[in-house]
Amino acid sequence: MKYAKRVAILAAFITISLIIILYNSLGFKDYESLKDHSDVEESISQIEMRLANIRESVHKSASVLPNFPEIKRPDKPKEEFKLPAPDQTDKFLETHCVSPRGELSGTRISETYEEIAFNDIDGGVWKQGWPVTYDESEYTDKDPLEVFIVPHSHNDPGWIKTFWDYYNSQTRNILDNIVDILTENEQRRFIWAEISYLDLWWKEQKEDRKNKFRKLVLNGQLEISTAGWVMNDEANTHYSSMIDQLFEGHQWTRDNISPNFMPKTSWCIDPFGTSPTMAYILNRAGIPYLAMQRVHYEVKKYLARQKRLEFSWRQSWAVGTQDSSTDTFTHLFPFYSYDIPHTCGPDPKICCQFDFKRMAPDRLTCPWGINARAIDNNNIQERASTLVDQYKKHSTLYGTNKLLIILGDDFRYQTYSEAHAQFDNYERLFQFINSNKDMHTKIQWGTLNEYFQAVMKEKNQLIESGSPKIESFQPISGDFFTYADRRNHYWSGYYTSRPFYKEMDRDLRSHLRAAEIFYSLARIQDTTRMEGMYDMLVTSRQNAALFQHHDGVTGTAKTFVNNDYGERMLTSLKNCENVISQSTQILMGHHSAENIIFDIDEHRVKQDGLPQRITIDTGSEDRYVVFVNSLGHERRELVSIRVNSVQLAVFGPSGENILAQISPAFDFPFQLRDDAFDLYFEITVPPLGASQYKIERREKGKSQVTVSKLYFHNHAEFKSNTFTTEPISDSEISFENSYITATFTRNQATLTAVHSSEFNTKVIIEFLTYISNFNSRDDRSGAYLFIPIGSAKIFRDMNSPNVFVQRGELISKICGRFLYLTHCSSLIHTKSIEATSVQFENYINLIVDNEEVVMRLKTSVKSKGENYFYTDLNGLTVQRRKYHSKLGIQGNFYPMPTLAYIEDINTRVSIHSKQSLGVGSLENGCIEVMLDRRPIYDDSRGLEQGVTDNKAIVGKFRLHVEYSQQGIKEANSELSFPSLVSQITRESLQNPIFKLVMKAKALGADSKYSGLSLPLPCDLQIVNIRALSPQDPTKSESALILHKFIYNCELPTTGIPFNHCGNQDADGVDITKLFSKQRLVEITHTSLTMLQEMKPKVKSSIANFDSIDIKSYKLTFATNISQ
Ligand SMILES: [Zn+2]
After folding, report:
1. pLDDT tens readout for residues 72-115
2. Exposed/middle/buried for residue 966 (C-beta within 10 Å: 0-12, 13-18, 19+)
3. Which residues form the Glycoside hydrolase family 38 central domain (predicted)?
4. pLDDT reading at 1092 higher than 90
């Protein structure tokens, strides 16, 4: 920015400050009283005129309709939440701000990236490895190779077929066959993972068949691994959805298989890259072992060289400590895939011959030229030694003489004859190998758990004997993104594919969470009214869980399969709306109402359409809107509702008249209406609570709302009786509030800078596009892969957008409409947390083929280290990233489930996203977020289609510039945390306030409700209050899941009100006190998914957290019936 302009803005800022001081010092609270002081008014108007002359672009008071007797202006600056001074707060900092850390031990995955050349050297038969050899003398009579063959079938709940079609045509048979084949011989084993399919099958079975299945699980022949509803994606998923889908599977298994059910292992062979969040969730659910497959082939090779494919996967905040409580013991498969050719050993040509489904005349063959042959007396010696040779080579990659061999593929064991072909031929081999002692190999059917138990036994012996071999088990931390399965084929496309449904997933997440919480609270008051609603919740949970599947939220299923997920999510959203409305009705005391008295604003009417606004008829009678907050802290936020008149006044829950702003109704892509209006006002809603606001109809001339002013550039005239409109004369536009000023270019309608009294940071927004590679058949972008041709170019037709600006008392907004994109930025003028960020909305309807559009933030931040940037993992933790040119553009994109940031010594620039998208930082000071993509070709990973079913989407983002006077320390570890402001912003974006429009005034109800007696401490969040199935009408049971996070204390707490946080008691939070308004009769600390009771360290009602943690408590409330 030019110096003269900066001076002008500074002058304007001082002038506005003077006005505010003048207003306040004279005690004027409203416009009416100002009128009686004409001298002051005159001088103010003089100042305002001067201001207008100085700069059109500086924020001005909007035009105001007359008669404002008692209007409540946004609160004057209240005392803000402050962190204690650093020198007195060691204890505070330790528990809230920094995680314990010490000397580094073990390995961070990011460090391996420094050492690996990523040059894809041809390793021979094991293409991505090396020619493996072994020393026969390693295997002895005393210490033979012990092989566990684990049969499995990978069942995608939707991909090429819908969930139901797969079940009906394939999975039902598979489950039938498993029961039969295992019952025939108790030596046989099988593992099963997807509870969603088991649920379908279970509903069709007679009791004796169910008993057979239960018996197989309980006698250890059939292991249910993970027991999640699905094998969830780990890149795009929010951690709370990961917990939900696991919870649903665990509760199902406990209810149907055994009340003592407890999975020991987790099975993750297909998710495209893996996250430590999942390992942590498994750990908290009591599952100690994990087997996983899809990790970058170069990382596998690196670990295999060091025999480190089995490790304790440790959470980043526990690295460098002796604390192993977050560890999950993990087995990583070394080879390319989980199919039989890639699991027996390094040579797929040989392994394929031991897939007995691939025997002529079966159509399935081996692509390496030699098919499987049935084992008979003539070939058994050669076959057995060929196979054992592969096993021994395979075994050299691990630290023990125990070997895990999985036997299966997608939808295997579909026919009885196929199942028998595998089991019978292997049993012949087993018999031969086990009886030929000189092979020094013991081979058997096994479950994952049997394998891990054997490894643990050997590991403990190594520890006891002080063997150096134990080194191979040292902990590893970090994540396994971005996955590449071959060459430079990075699976970074699916971070963005089908963003419409990724957004819908988050919408369902927030709806389901609120429905669970308010249902749980309402059921305490009124069990009879809640009948039927629990079933709605269950359907919604299961549909939401289904979409967490690694071909669901990833956007990698066939179009019609994706639409099936969409229909399920739509049904679930409607269910949740119903539950939220009915529960709120009960909690607000509308006892007499028979029917639902609310309409929920911004609801979806079809699975592929954006949420729709309700236009409230305010022209004929007073209307009421109830706002619902599902977070554990009070929220002050600006909301908008759509009305059809402007002669209005807005009143809060205590009858106070509050400031409101009228703007023309704005619909994407760029529609302004003069017959409908967006009414903005700031609301306050208690923790887990609801507040009722009244929209009062006023006679003409008695309105009490301010009207925004409109400005246009390169736009047809907008005729309005309500608004004044003007062209924009200046080439730069600024919006300002108490914290920041945001500057935009008129010609592009995009942000150029954010500044305050402390900082001046350039943030230039650009829209660019990568052209998907489609030239070479083998290197195409598709649903999974992102393979661009070269670097990004300016997105087409980004010149001369139509520009619209509105300025108001409460919110100012600038929108630019380009050919395929509308970009809006807003700044809120209240004193609240949301006023500390600039809000973006990107409407995009991508119809141009083979383009992948990004929003790039070019900032003046000098990214720390070697182009470090930070992205979140599942909304739970933050992972430091570094740009590596050796990975190409596609290998430098990462998942951004909620947040990404860059920082230098004083400034951090963060971008929050409401939905999961891909993100990269290819240059210092830049962040780029992929918005949508339209690769028309298949990328050869089995989907056999491109992704061209794009929908119009609106991506919501918040941009924070945070400045630390003391400096953001260069931590020598990779640990980084969002600030408290950032955490609160993220929670509010992920859990929007629900707007319940009352159909007609229902009398005798309360205007305010809060489910909590106290707000939670700052660093505690309610992940969920999940209702447990209703058993006894005198009791209401729910699972309270709490998450304690760590935040960066070097960044300011701007905008956080003093009373935001509850008691920061070092001893923990007393749950009884939190719920003292409710009839809480029992609290039990349990494992995450409630399968185990935990022994309380302290009184069971105290939730105490040493560091980052997620804990579950079973709460039992007495219902009104019990009284
Ligand atoms: Zn799969």
Report:
1. 444 444 566 776 655 545 556 666 666 545 445 568 899 999 99
2. exposed
3. 489-569
4. yes
Q: Is 227 left (phi over 0), alpha (psi -120 to 50) or beta?
A: left
| Tokens, residue 894 | 């990462």
Nearest to 916 by CA among 500, 562, 546, 547: 500
Helices 195-204, 239-256: axis angle to 10 degrees equals 30
Query: How far does residue 419's CA lie from ligand 1's centre (Å)?
Result: 20
Residues 6+ apart with CB under 8 A from 285: 246, 250, 263, 1087, 1088, 1089, 1091
Query: What order do you get walking across the sheet with 107-108 strand by strand?
Result: 107-108, 476-477, 310-313, 328-332, 289-292, 265-268
- pLDDT tens for 268-305 read 999 999 999 999 999 999 999 999 999 999 999 999 99
The strand pairing partners of 734, in sequence order, are 743
Per-residue pLDDT at 252:
98
Centroid of ligand 1 to alpha carbon of 344 (angstroms): 20
Task: Compute the distance between CA of residue 470 and CA of residue 468 in angstroms, rounded to an integer.
Answer: 5
Question: How far is residue 46's CA from residue 76's CA, in Å, rounded to a whole number?
Answer: 24
Distance 490 CA to ligand 1 centre (A): 17
Given the residues 270, 327, 678, 1070, select the one marked as catalytic.
270
* CA 638/CA 640 separation, integer angstroms: 7
Question: What's the number of CA atoms in the CB half-sphere (13 Å) around residue 247?
Answer: 27
411 C-alpha to ligand 1 centroid (Å): 10
pLDDT band at 1005 (very low <50, low <70, confident <90, very high): confident
| Digit-coded pLDDT (tens) for 1057-1078 | 877 887 666 678 999 999 988 9
Q: Give distance in angstroms: CA of 489 to centre of ligand 1.
A: 18
- Say which amino acid occupies 984: I
Burial class (CB in 10 A: 0-12, 13-18, 19+), 438: exposed
Asked if 106 and 1085 count as a contact pair (C-beta separation under 8 A), the reply is no
> What residue has token string 């609301």?
683
270 is catalytic: yes
Q: How far away, in angstroms, is 369 Cα from ligand 1 center?
A: 26
pLDDT of the residue at 105: 57
Q: Let me know: does 316 contact 276? Beta carbons within 8 Å.
A: yes
Distance CA 372, CA 152 (A): 19
Do the beta carbons of residue 870 and residue 982 sit within 8 Å? Answer: no
Q: Is the peptide bond preceding residue 361 cis, with omega within 30 degrees of 0?
A: yes
CA of 565 to the centre of ligand 1 (A): 16
Per-residue pLDDT, averaged over 498-515, amounts to 98
pLDDT in tens, 817-856: 998 999 999 999 999 999 999 999 999 999 999 999 999 9
Residue 692: band (very low, low, confident or very high) from pLDDT cuts 50, 70, 90: very high
Tell me how far the alpha carbon of residue 169 lies from the centroid of ligand 1, in angstroms.
17
- C-beta of residue 746 within 8 angstroms of C-beta of residue 840: no
Distance CA 196, CA 535 (A): 16
